[in-house]
């Protein structure tokens, strides 16, 4: 039973990353109609950003959680302004190809300087609260041992996902955003700067990816290709979820992480493929994905 | 939605004649390679990828379908052929047949699943399906995981042509390439190809005209996957191995890059693109990972400023269809 709970926890953590990444993809897809192939590379940049902050300037994990998403988000906004912007009105596939090229460049540069092996990033040991040193150590829940950091990742990403959902579905800014997705010309006529909103949205989606990168740095090592294979699974998550709603990508992300964890416990050989098999099954029954709108 | 390709020129008898002249020139040039002192292994490899890119181009350039998982046909046919040749001791022609049949069967299954969606969704589904296969091949015993199937015997084709002789192998690969190329060329200039183009331009209208577009797209997908598999089987004889790199999604990306550089939806573009990219990998190998960066830069540059590709730009400049 211990092993089952451990796999469930791993599944929830992977699910957190899937949710954060597919959420960012959904936000970007909604506004720019681009499948952001560079998402994995930007996730990796988030992790590296945390690593640089710690080893070059001594700035620790807590600040990195804020600084890295902003820094990578700004990088993303520069990409949007200098390149992606020029593809508006062209076939969506060009966006996919362009971001694929950007991913190759970013990953290639990091591979040149850091090789393909991983760099360690320590779990923060401050602040000290009630006998716990930062997020290190763990606690015994009776039925299983919970490393604090892993619990933190699940809770924190869930909060971020829900906050993003709230921002987009419940606030005035989100309403503008959704309206601009539906009909940019009309929204523009109301005096809203749509291009700027698109840039900010891309920055937000990219920031979410970078945030996931910082969260994953202490668990998985910081590697140039850490996002390259993960992103394919996230694409499968997105296809299953259907890119319809923000909530859809959050729920699908977490659910698939858990299913993957369960598979690892009951039938480990299929753990790498279960997401793809599920995708095939879902598509055969419902070609639009679970919550999808039509393409 | 703006079209992916620059194909505004009508197919006239003159265009057909231009393309025939180009084809003859290409065949003669490639036929002279063994006498020229150019490293034949490099050209053979490029020919396999050229056929692969042409097969891919059949889908995107004429059907408007971007498959981001075409490596799965290359890799599957490679593994099937390699296994048949090495373990079962099949003759080369039967080995190729097994590989092509494997790719054809795979394209029927994957086509049936992926053809239901369009645009980005289609790209992502093909990508995910090929990654599914990658993990299966990683674990399946017959592929030997990371090692791949190595030391494949080349044998005698039809009991006559000794494939272990580089020149003989070269002409066999060249014949395979030209045959596959002509098959694609015939397809795009057939009534079937015309329907395919109309689906690319406006699928709703094609449906309203009474065409069952899903069937056309599925047939194009199967044809493309099968020819890509043929390229994969030929590649087994050239490289004498079948490995995981051929199934990984980065290979699918390279196929897209070759076609994009040469020109999407042009007849000769994928061939030129394949030669450019393979030559680049060959001669820039010393730069290590910078090759990846250079490929990324080419991708970005093509998409931003050079969308017609090399052949597409030339054809546009001369107002010819190539």
Question: Biggest protein-protein interface?
Answer: A-B, 43 and 45 residues
How many domains make up the 3D coordinates of chain A?
A: 1
Q: CATH top level of chain A?
A: Mainly Alpha
Work out the helix count of chain A: 11
End-to-end span of chain B in angstroms? 24 Å
Characteristic terms for this protein:
heterodimer, A: 295 residues, mainly alpha, ABC transporter involved in vitamin B12 uptake, BtuC, 4 strands, B: 322 residues, two-stranded antiparallel ribbon, 14 helices, globular
What does this molecule look like?
Chain A has 295 residues and is mostly helical. Chain A has one domain: ABC transporter involved in vitamin B12 uptake, BtuC. Chain A is 69% helix and 3% strand. Chain A contains eleven helices and four strands, in the order H-H-H-H-E-E-E-E-H-H-H-H-H-H-H. In chain A, the strands form two sheets. In chain A, strands 1-2 form a two-stranded antiparallel sheet. Chain A has a two-stranded antiparallel sheet with strand order 3-4. In chain A, a hairpin with a 4-residue loop joins strand 3 and strand 4. The mean pLDDT of chain A is 88. Chain B has 322 residues and is mostly helical. Chain B has a domain of 208 residues. Helix content of chain B is 71%, strand content 1%. Chain B has 14 helices and two strands, in the order H-H-H-H-H-H-E-E-H-H-H-H-H-H-H-H. Chain B has a two-stranded antiparallel ribbon. In chain B, strand 1 and strand 2 form a beta hairpin. The longest helix of chain B is centred in the last third of the chain and has 27 residues. Chain B is globular and about 50 Å long. The mean pLDDT of chain B is 87. At the A-B interface, helix 4, helix 9 and helix 11 of A face helix 6, helix 11 and helix 13 of B. Chain B: It is a multi-pass membrane protein. Chain B: Its main location: membrane. Chain B: This is ABC transporter permease.
